[in-house]
Structure formats: structure tokens, C-alpha cells
Design goal:
This protein is an alpha/beta fold. The chain has 5 helices and 13 strands. Keywords: Nucleotidyltransferase, Transferase.
Length: 219
């Protein structure tokens, strides 16, 4: 299985830290945030990683190179302007191939990597969901008996970690578009599974949360 890390965002919520450094390269726990992802993917047995880049792309590409320093292969998908999640995945599909792949938001931290076998049958996606953080109390989706829906009793937050089948994206017109509407459409057809992860997860979206993660890792 291949993996894709989303790293093309502008990092506006992280300013002023991202005025001169792209968010994936912000240091936490003694190494850039994105390096934590690469090391975890390697430990999970994943050797091919696609990374989409746009803002300060050259800095990220120079820092990580071809991936050999992490004993894996990095394939770069360079966007002239950020294409949002859906458009970014679509542009990267030639690098990802026809098999399901692991998708990770570059601005989260989590010590869990789902196995490819969790995406089964005709499902188009498998989502990792977590308890709602204080900054997102309403959650995103509902999880019932391993199936994900837009509405339901137990609403949880999407962790930014998922297994996706390329067919979820295939056929969309090129350009920038969001992933959420496609996921909701697949949910309406009962083609999205999910799981509740209760371990440590952080949406590293602000300088304050980055600092909190730093304290956690050093402890």
C-alpha cells in the first residue's frame, strides 16, 4: 500500500511560524512534523509515499529529498496553487496507482496507522475518528456499528487519517475541490466504514497546539 501526505497548505493558522517555514517542516519533538509521519509510515511497512506540495514547496522537497534518508521512496506532486484536498489527490492519482491508499493530513499528529485490510468490499473509504477536541465540539460524522454517516447519535471528529479507494476521486473534473462532499456522497450510499481511535491525537493547527504537542513528546 502507498501513502499520501497532504502538505500543500498555506499554514495560515500557524502564522507567524509559517511566514518563512512551511508547516510540514515546523519542528516538534526534535524533528520536523512531517518526519514523524515518514518514520511512522516506514514502521508500518509502507515504502512509497506521495507528498503534495505548493507553499514553499522547494524547502520541503530539499529537506526530504527522495526519501532515502528515511529508507523509503518519496514521490512529489507539485501544485502551482493549492488544489484543496480533493484536487490534490486527483492530481496525485498517477503516482498513487489504482489500489487503495492511506491518506494523512500533514498537520495532524497521531501514533496510529490503519491497516489496508480495513477497507473492504465495495467501500470507497475507511475513516479514523477521534473524540471531539475542545476546539471542535460538534464533531464531523457519526459512527454506528463500524459505518460512518453524516448524522447520528455518536458524533466524532475526523482524524485526518483515512484509507481511500481511487474510485472515490476518479471522474472528477480537474482543479481545486474539497474531499468532504465526495465522502458524504459515499456515506449516503453506505460505502464508508470507520473506527474510533481513542489514543493520542492532535490537530496541530495553531502555535499553541504545536507547543502542547512539544511538551507531550518531550515528556
Amino acid at each position: 500500500m502507498k501513502a499520501m501526505i497532504l502538505a500543500a497548505g498555506l499554514g495560515k493558522r500557524m502564522r507567524p511560524l509559517t511566514d518563512h517555514c512551511p508547516k510540514p517542516l515546523l519542528p516538534v519533538g526534535g524533528k520536523p512534523l512531517i518526519v514523524h509521519h515518514l518514520e511512522r509510515l516506514k514502521r508500518a511497512g509502507i515504502d512509497d509515499v506521495v507528498i503534495n506540495v505548493s507553499y514553499r514547496a522547494e524547502q520541503i522537497m530539499t529537506a526530504l529529498g527522495d526519501g532515502s534518508a528515511f529508507k523509503l521512496r518519496i514521490h512529489w506532486s507539485h501544485e502551482e496553487a493549492p488544489l484543496e484536498t480533493g484536487g490534490g489527490i486527483q492530481k496525485a492519482l498517477p503516482l498513487l496507482g489504482n489500489a487503495p491508499f492511506l491518506l494523512i493530513n500533514g498537520d495532524v499528529w497521531c501514533d496510529y496507522t490503519p491497516q489496508a485490510s480495513l477497507l473492504q468490499g465495495s467501500d470507497l473509504a475507511h475513516l479514523v475518528l477521534v473524540d471531539n477536541p475542545s476546539h471542535h465540539p460538534a464533531g464531523d460524522f457519526a459512527l454506528t456499528d463500524g459505518r460512518v454517516a453524516v448524522e447520528g447519535r455518536q458524533r466524532l471528529t475526523f482524524a485526518g487519517i483515512s484509507l481511500l479507494h481511487p474510485n472515490l476521486i476518479t471522474g472528477q473534473p480537474p482543479g481545486a475541490f474539497a474531499l468532504a462532499p465526495l465522502l458524504k456522497q459515499a456515506m449516503a450510499g453506505n460505502r464508508v466504514s470507520g473506527e474510533h481511535f481513542s489514543g493520542h491525537w492532535v490537530d496541530v493547527g495553531t502555535p499553541e497546539r504545536l507547543e502542547a504537542l512539544e511538551h507531550h513528546l518531550l515528556a
